[in-house]
Amino acid sequence: MAENSPNGEIHSNLPNFLLSVRLKYVKLGYHYLISNAIYLLIVPILVAIGLHLSTLTLEDLMTNLAMLKSYSTIVVFLATLYFMSRPRNVYLVDFACYKPHERYMISKERLVEKLAGIFDEDSLNFQKKILERSGLSDKTYIPVDKWIPSNFSLSSNQQQAKLVIVGAIDDLLAKTGVKIREIGIVIVNSSMFNPTPSLSAMIVNHYKLGVNVITYNLGGMGCSAGLISVDLANRLLQGQANTYALIVSTEVVSAAFYTGKDKSKLIPNMIFRMGASAVLLSNRSSDRWRSKYQLMHVVRTHKGADDRAYGCAYQDEEEDGKKGMSLSKDLMAVAGEALKTNITTLGPLVLPMSEQLLFFASLVARNVLKRKIKPYIPDFKMAFEHFCIHAGGRAVLDELEKNLDLSKELMEPSRMTLYRFGNTSSSSVWYNLAYSEAKGRIKKGDRAWQIGFGSGFKCNSAVWRALRTVDAAIEKNAWTDEIEDFPVQIPY
User: Which among 157, 217, 297, 302 is annotated as catalytic?
Assistant: First the structure.
């Protein structure tokens, strides 16, 4: 079992993955780049043909009908190929993050009091130590009235799920003005709680959606499932014109509550909190003018073929029937490998050409020519203005800040999200982006990088480009009423 640090997280550091990248992952990134951009080569050919034809007179064209027919055939063929192969643009119209009612707010002291009658002294003291070092505030949210094992029933979990999901969707619909029946795709992700009927079916029933709505319910995919949902929605929108896709990301905290004595399984009790996000995507060209962002890239990395990665975050059941998530001692090392793969693959898609050339030359010199030179570390700050890193825990954020050489301001959205809302699982990357919006930091043309990781083991990235400046005085979200109080100094 994993050795735990004083703050209750797995005692290990992320490896410096930028110093040990592998050439095959760089090649994979360039493969994605070429595969997704090959249709752009058609445009210069069409332009060249057009320019050549513009230099010819009508008499020249009439005397050389064979050439005119050849050009016409080429133009028709390439134009057809271009429009058939060009991916549809996917726009993020808007999103909403659920902010629970104040009656669900709980201080660290009160939470410990609630747990006093459930755990023995050793387990209670351990969880108290986790809480003190977690980076969470006294204003996070838990379904307090249900926070005792006797109330962890299926019906109470269903009530919690409906509360946060409907709350987020209602907020989103109010912000966008889109009618719920206009939505053609519904995707819900919840890792630990997956009842029957599904949560996506609950949405269909609650809002009385039509019989043609396409629904998906993703379970067991961990804290990176929100970005997996984005990728799924993007793929579906490529094949269905003029469609809205609704993505809901959440986790029912009581469904993951553990009452045993295994310390590695006690950690989630202290860091996971109530939360949900609802995201509206569109492939309608008419929605571009009012949308906030355009989806640029999604890169998914899955290490599940490796037994060590597959088992590093594993839900199991003890002899007495108590269930919990086991965290192995390999967790941080596996996370580092997944991050390294994902970032290396993403690099060719987002880094400026100058950074790519320097990085690629260094990589070839070290891996192919076997030269003993210092590796060139690409600067991802040249590719993104905003970093939305999953607020999974303080130690992971510390390591990512160091590995990616990020400033305190760039890490601020993730740290403040963890502090104010806790680990809201797959929805946390949206609370991060909402923080930057509430601070008035999103300007037209800015690029935002969302990165999440979870059991399996998976690491996923989504890249967005802001289509307009987000006016914090007009756009309201879960942070608006208190954004002036942030950032705060987090005691460790």
Answer: 302
